[in-house]
Amino acid sequence: MSKFRVRASFGDVAKNFEFSRGKENSLTVVELKHTLEKAFGETSFSVRAHQTDGSVKPLYQDAQLQEALRDAVAGGASYLSVSISSEAVGKSGAAARPAPAPAAAV
Question: Is pTM, for the whole model, over 0.85?
Answer without folding.
Answer: no
